Amino acid sequence: MGSFAKLAAPNKYYLTQFGKQVITTGLKLRELVAIPQLAFAQIA
Predict the structure, then answer these.
(1) Max alpha carbon distance in the chain (Å)?
(2) What's the CA gap between 19 and 2, in Å, rounded?
(3) Average pLDDT over residues 39-43
(4) Is pLDDT larger for residue 28 or for residue 12?
(5) What is the Cα–Cα distance from 28 to 23, expressed in whole angstroms?
(6) Which residue in 9, 10, 17, 43 is a FRET match for 35, CA 20 to 30 A apart?
(7) Are 7 and 22 within 8 A, CB to CB?
(8) What is the 3-state secondary structure (H, E, C) of 3-42?
(9) pLDDT for 14-29, tens place per residue?
């Protein structure tokens, strides 16, 4: 069904467990890869 599941309330969406895992993985990648590379780029 995707990363969101629609419930009875109109226009109200909740993250599924898979969606939460995707967001958590993206945040970890940003923290461990992207931010250190940006810091290194400013030093060089």
Answers:
(1) 53
(2) 8
(3) 69
(4) 28
(5) 9
(6) 17
(7) no
(8) CEEECCCCCCEEECHHHHHHHHHHHHHHHHHHHHHHHHHH
(9) 899 999 999 999 999 8
